Amino acid sequence: MTMRVCVRPFSSLLKSVGLRSEAFGTTQSFYAASAGRAKLLVLDVRLPGVNGLDFQRQLVDAGFQIPIIFITGHGDIPMTVRAMKSGAVEFLTKPFRDQDLLDAIHQALDRGRAIHQQQSELAELRSCHES
Fold it and tell me: Buried b vs exposed e over 119-130: b needs ≥16 C-beta within 10 Å?
């Protein structure tokens, strides 16, 4: 299973539990390379260019239903609420335990599978309706 992430420090942690990841330096490089294929996104609130919360909104507006886990060292309650209302799976504040991130990742992957199943069922219903 391949997972796309925007943060580098977690590559070895994810690899140690059998998850592959890919790091991106900017939101543009992620969007260009992986937005449609990503299984989940671990996203810092502070990013070069657009902030993580605005990038989440851009993805939602573009129709991408990617489970997102936010991490930040600069979070507050309004940020957390905004992220969660827009569909974030988790909002972790630094420092956090590795296990907290892994638990959030497994929860996000479960959510992603459910979203994919719903989309498949909806596509099948549309196909039946059109024929």
Answer: eeeeeeeeeeee
